[in-house]
Amino acid sequence: MNKEDFITKASASYNFQGEWILAGSAVFDNDYETGVQVKLPLKTFNRHGLIAGATGTGKTKTLQVIVEELSNAGVPVLVMDVKGDLSGLGAPGTMNPIIEKRAKHIGISWEGKGFPLEFVSISDEPGAKMKATVSEYGPVLLAKILDLNDNQAGVLSMIFKYCDDRNLPLLDLKDLKTVIKYIQEEGKEDFQRDYGFMHSTSAGTITRAIIGLEQQNAEDIFGEPSFDVFDLMQHKNSGEGLINVLRLTDMQTKPALFSTFMLCLLAEIFENMPELGDPKKPELVMFIDEAHLIFNNASKSLLDQFEMTIKLIRSKGVGIFFITQSPTDIPAAILGQLGTKVQHALRAFTAKDRKDIKTASENYPYSEYYKVDELITQLGIGEALISTLDEKGRPTELVHTLVRPPFSRMDVLTDFEIGQILKTSSLVKKYNVEVDRQSAYEILQEKIAGINKKEEEAQEEDYGKLRRQDDYERPAPRSREEPSNFEKIMKSPVTRTIATEITRGLLGVLGLRSTARRSSTRRYR
User: Fold this and answer.
1) H-helix or E-strand containing 498?
2) Buried b (16+ CB within 10 A) or exposed e, 67-96
3) CB–CB of 211/195 below 8 Å?
């Protein structure tokens, strides 16, 4: 390995003409090459990327650095903050000996700086609520989210058509469940006549899938007001891109909900963003931390949808970066679409770890200067192997890089600081309001109540007719002045004793007690 050749080749590989993002400086044979700065061309950030590495190796700070650079370049950002450690982007960092030493190695002047933040949320975390209605998801996407087969997906499409034709708004999952129940009971004949037969098994499967989603608090992402994705693409008066921090600290135990939200968000962005081709810089870059939460439990249909979206959304000027521990956490079809790769250290504790490291090293361009599979285990904190695409879309030289320290705080904001940001947030004022307009649930509840009322009135009317008919057919009572023959016989002294015995005998216990009392009287007479 020749150091001069490496410096010449690396310098040429990372010498871009357009706007770029500074990542750090090259390292060769454990020497920091101050004259070879590693830059990432802004033009290629819609070609997606990966930041990988074991816990504690510095991948979150690398994410922080890239987000800062994008904001400075006027590119809005959406960051998924799963661990809750990215809020520090909103406050300036403070100098310390480690930062001073690293800045000197890289050849930059370091100054603390805070960046413009907005907090958004799909749970109980503070921030502007990001919701969408069931109708906005649509039957095709919702069927993939619920993991329905083709027949069940067809039934769901018929249900959506039924609601569209009858002006039944589907705003949340409660509306959808109510419609399914109504079709099975009161509206069965109407539905079957216009749309076809809905088997109870399919209806039950769809309902159970909805309930499973509800158990992960899906009501937090379904409903109104619907979030406008263009609100994620704001700029400050200074020209900086707004950093939207989506706090997801309570999402690690709800992977299905996280996948559902991400797929809906990507679909919404794809549908609404205009076709831009190959812009000079992206319109929005999204960073998905703990990406394995999306892929580990995703169905095949969800993975297929993700793959298709990743392939197509770049032409809308949108870039997506996945942050995870190992590249093997990302499906191969999606991993192949990621143009920029930042690999921090991996640790080999087991045979599987060693196998994963070998696989990970094969995901990077061949380098005659590094033994990648060995170097991955030897990288220090804040060091990474970087490969990106040049301005013509070609992979650059793989470079061992000392990543620059963040300008913002490398710690979280306090609750008070977060509260101050939320107080001045235009998104919180816009979206954190209660909206409960009439939807399918209320409309069908009123309809069912009306049907029940008519049935009760009909029953009362039928009962009244029977009563009137019974009164008409019943013979008039005899006048007390004309006793019947039976009454004359009963009044006779001869029959009075017999009648008393018969009547009391019909009353059970009373008859037995009377008989016993008379027997006792006779005995002691």
Assistant:
1) helix 493-506
2) bbbbbbbebbbbbbbbeebbbbbbbebeee
3) no
Better-predicted residue by pLDDT, 248 or 257: 248
Token digits for 156? 């769901």
User: DSSP letter string over 186-247?
Assistant: TTHHHHHHHH----HHHHHHHHHHHHHHHTTTGGGTBSSSPPPGGGGS-B-TTSPBPEEEEE
Per-residue pLDDT averaged across 12-18, rounded? 84
Cα 422 to the center of its chain, rounded Å = 22
State the Cα–Cα distance between residues 87 and 89, nearest whole angstrom: 5
Name the more confident of 228 and 498.
228
The alpha carbon torsion through 49, 55, 56, 58 (nearest 10 deg) reads 0
Query: Is 378 exposed, middle or buried (CB count within 10 Å of its CB: 0-12, 13-18, 19+)?
Result: exposed
Residue 189, classified by CB atoms within 10 Å of its CB into exposed (0-12), middle (13-18) or buried (19+), is exposed
Q: What is the DSSP string of 316-380?
A: GTEEEEEEES-GGGS-HHHHTT--EEEE------SHHHHHHHHHHHTTS---SS--HHHHTTT--
C-alpha span between 420 and 246 (Å, rounded):
17
Mean pLDDT, residues 110-120 taken together: 94
CB half-sphere exposure, 438, CA atoms < 13 A: 8
Cα separation, 254 vs 220, whole angstroms: 12
**Predicted confidence band at 502 (pLDDT cuts at 50, 70, 90)?**
very low
Neighbours of 240 (CB within 10 A): 18
Q: Which two tokens stand for residue 253?
A: 């135990």
SS3 of residue 279 by DSSP: coil
CATH code reported for the domain at 3-126+227-413:
3.40.50.300
Which class for 133: exposed (0-12), middle (13-18), buried (19 or more C-beta within 10 A)?
Answer: middle
Q: Using alpha carbons, select from 400, 398, 395 the residue that is nearest to residue 375.
A: 400
Write out pLDDT tens, residues 42-85.
Answer: 999 999 999 999 999 999 999 999 999 999 999 999 999 888 88
Residue 251: partners with Cβ closer than 8 Å, 6 or more residues away: 82, 122, 123, 257, 258, 293
Beta strands in 8-91 (DSSP E): 20-28, 31-41, 49-52, 77-81
pLDDT digits (tens, 9 = 90+) for 406-446: 999 999 999 999 999 999 999 999 999 887 777 777 888 88
Provide the 3-class DSSP secondary structure of residue 20: strand
